[in-house]
Each structure stands twice: as C-alpha cells, then as structure tokens.
Design goal:
10% strand, Rossmann fold, 4-stranded mixed β-sheet, 3 domains, alpha/beta
C-alpha cells in the first residue's frame, strides 16, 4: 500500500523536499489571502455554495444530465469503480484506439484506471508533468495538486536519464520541462482519445470546468477526436455565476495564484464550421459511495472538498510524513477523513487517528470543512460509540485491551479513595511505566511521575485548607 510511517520519518531527503515545497505553498497562500475580512467572506461564500449544491444533489445531477445531453455531451452513470473503468474501456474500443492521453485526475486514481486499461492492452500516457514523473517511477501521486512534490531536480534528472537514455542529461528545470514537452507532443499528435477530470460541473449550462497550469489539459480536451471527462457526482454546482468565487478560492488556496494559467469551460463537442475540439465528449459521473456519504447530514461536509490541497500544506503530520505514508489515494487531512468513509473503518479507520486535531486544516479550508470534528466522529464510530451513520465498519476498531483499560480508568476516577490509592502506587512504581508505553517512548522522553502528589506538596508548604489526600 505505501511506505511505513517510520520509514517516511527516516527519509531525510524526502522530508526536506516536501517541507521546502509545502512551506513555499503555505506562504503563497497566506500572501494571497492577506486581507482577513476578504478571506472570511470568500470562505463563507464557498461553504454556502458547496453545501447548497450537496443539499440538492439528485436534482442538480438530473439537471446537469439534461443540459449536457442538450449540448451534445454523452452522459454515463457509474455506481462503482469497475463500472466507470468499463465505460472508459468501451468508449476506447468503439474508436479502436489503444492509446489514451490523460490529464491530471485524482478520481481516476481512485478508479485504478491506469492499471485497468494497461491490463487490457491500452497505453496510458500521463501528460501532467508531475503525474508523468510518478507514472515513470511506478508511484502514486504524493499530493493532490503536486503529484511529484517529493522529488528534487536531481532525482527527476536521474529518472529521465534512466527512462530516456538518448536524451542528454540535465538538472536544469527548464530543460527537463522542455524534454517532457517534446516527448508528450508526439503523443498528443497521434492520440485519438484524451481523458481528464473535472473541477466543477455547472448544472445550469451543462459546462465542464477544468483548471490547470500546464496546458496539457487543454491538449487532452481539444487535440484528440474523443474527450472523456470523469468526475465524482459531488462536483456539480447549480449556476455559472457561482464559479468565480470557487475559482478564486481554489487557485489561491492551492498555489497562491490569483488565477491559473488555463481555465477551460467545456460546453459541447466540435460543431459544424469549428476548426478544433473533439468530435465526441463523454461525461462519466461516478458515485462509488458518495451517495452514502451525502445521506449523513454531518459527514456530508466531506464532499464539499474542492481538492485544493491547502489542508495538506498546513498539516503538521502530512508535512513530516508526506503522502505515500498514508497508503491511500487521498492523503493528508482530507484523506484521513474521506478514505475511512469510502473504504470503511475496518480498512482505513486508522487514518482517522493520524491527526493531531490541531485544527490547522479547518482554518485554511476554503469551503469550511470541520475536519477535526468529523475525525472525532469517525474515531467514535470506529469503537462503536457516538452517532450512527452508514459508514461501513462501525465498531470494528474497538479492541478488548484498550476498552478494558478505559473502563478501569473510569472506575478509578469515579471514587476519590480509589483514585488516591492508585496515584500513590503510581508515584512509587512510576519507574516501571516506560516498559508499558514503549511505542510512545520511541520518539519521546519517558514520563516521570512525581514522588509526591500536589496535595501533599501543598500541605507541606502550609496550605492545609481544602487539601485532602
């Protein structure tokens, strides 16, 4: 699944790479939202737009399908990952193509689309530079918006030399980018089909919105004869006039830019008399558990996410461990929240514990997702406590040992005499504790209990009133 936490902590080169990159992104975001009042206003607006859209999700999806169909876009529904993968394969086979150029898309990582198509003899070419790098290394994306953020120029140069030995070696960033551009240009020239994700889908106009910086998304959507767009059903918004604040929040939160280099609004296939664009546009709407998440009034907030990555850039856990240590498609705070709901608490419930609950993620979230509150909710459900939802695996993380210890703790603290007796014993036998809490002590000094409790110290100092052992 992924490298272990301990291994990630030992990889000093990777930690240095991600810390420098994420510190830079965090600083740019802070500069972009220097006006606190503007930030608050935009965040409230973004939260309201996304929450309103989710409250009307079935209605908006039907409206999106009607308008897209009227525009000439062919709409497909996929309840599961397997159905979505089969739909993509069927479209490619209908056009007898064995190569697909692909823009950056986290939802296709969720599908495992690349591996599925390659097993069917389809060549998949990632055209985003970061995605191309992780594809060449056989890795998963490290970050939602910057898939290869953990690699430095020297590592990328070595990778290119190993995979493209005929190309002169260079560690210059511009040269490396130009090399990738030359390689990809030939792929764009010969590709019959291109695939992308969707940042927002506008129900009112049937418009698919794609935000990017490299131009590869525009090439995937215009150069091939067929464009396939794949997105989760939660990406729909009601109206086109709601797009500008969401774009502002997305780009500033992600990279600190006022706006990205390319904002693509895709409304229809090529019409008569037009010189470019695909002859066919297909939209695949993926559920894969999203309807279940949307049914819970509290956990529904998870689906507001616009995939900006700001929570990762500010998370004290993610910035030290990186993305691969999570072992899942979606990583960082939003992954710790989404993956247990998507895969079930029995499979991914441990991720809900991989958080300090410091609240940095919720402070910078552009759509106000209360991530710490929802993580606490999942932790409670994991042991069978708290409100009940449709998240699979409720109670699966309840273990007899910890449950017994907590019951003992409650029993001791419910009676002052029992509490005094136990605290006295611990004061005398505290030296035995490090052996009992070894995992805690691997990266911390062992706890030392005071030989005398506060009440006795106060009494010795002459503060006898209300002092009781």
């Amino acid at each position: 699944m992924g490298i272990e936490f301990a291994q990630a902590l030992r990889d000093q080169r990777m930690r240095g790479n991600i810390r420098r990159a994420l510190d830079g992104l965090a600083a740019k975001r802070q500069a972009a939202f220097s006006d606190r009042d503007e930030w608050t206003r935009l965040q409230d607006q973004g939260r309201a737009i996304r929450a309103h859209a989710l409250s009307r999700l079935p209605e908006l999806l039907e409206a999106l399908e009607r308008q897209c169909t009227a525009n000439g876009i062919r709409v497909h529904w996929a309840e599961t990952c397997d159905q979505a993968n089969r739909l993509v394969l069927d479209i490619l086979r209908q056009h007898q193509t064995r190569m697909l150029v692909k823009g950056k898309s986290m939802v296709t990582e969720e599908l495992g689309l690349n591996a599925f198509l390659e097993a069917q003899g389809i060549e998949v070419v990632e055209t985003d530079l970061g995605e191309l790098i992780v594809q060449l290394t056989g890795e998963r994306p490290f970050h939602i918006i910057a898939p290869a953020i953990h690699k430095d120029r020297q590592q990328i140069a070595e990778l290119f030399r190993a995979r493209f030995p005929d190309i002169p070696y260079s560690e210059d960033a511009e040269t490396l980018t130009a090399t990738a551009r030359r390689i990809l240009r030939e792929k764009f020239r010969s590709a019959l089909a291109g695939l992308t994700g969707v940042n927002f889908a506008v129900a009112e106009t049937g418009t698919l919105v794609l935000v990017e910086n490299e131009g590869n998304g525009r090439m995937c959507t215009t150069a091939p004869e067929v464009h396939i767009a794949v997105t989760g059903i939660e990406k729909v918004i009601p109206r086109l006039d709601q797009l500008p604040p969401l774009l502002t929040l997305l780009t500033r939160s992600a990279t600190g830019q006022p706006i990205t280099t390319y904002v693509n609004l895709i409304g229809a296939p090529r019409r008569a008399g037009e010189l470019d664009g695909p002859k066919e546009v297909h939209l695949i709407l993926l559920d894969n558990g999203r309807s279940r998440l949307c049914a819970d009034p509290e956990l529904q907030a998870t689906l507001r996410c616009i995939r900006c990555g700001a929570c990762m850039n500010h998370c004290p856990v993610y910035t030290r461990l990186g993305g691969h240590a999570y072992g899942t498609v979606y990583t960082g705070p939003i992954g710790s929240l989404l993956e247990p709901q998507r895969q079930g608490l029995a499979v991914a419930g441990a991720l809900a514990d991989a958080s300090s609950l410091c609240g940095a993620c919720s402070e910078v979230c552009p759509v106000g997702i209360p991530i710490p509150d929802l993580l606490r909710r999942l932790r409670a459900e994991g042991i069978g406590a708290g409100a009940k939802s449709h998240v699979p695996g409720r109670g699966s993380r309840r273990k007899l040992g910890p449950a017994t210890l907590w019951r003992l703790w409650a029993w001791l603290h419910a009676d002052p005499s029992r509490y005094r007796l136990m605290s006295g014993l611990l004061s005398k036998t505290g030296g035995l504790l490090p052996r009992l809490v070894t995992p805690w002590n691997r990266s911390r000094l062992p706890p030392r209990l005071a030989p005398e409790n506060l009440h006795r110290l106060a009494r010795k100092a002459g503060f006898t009133e209300d002092c009781d052992d």
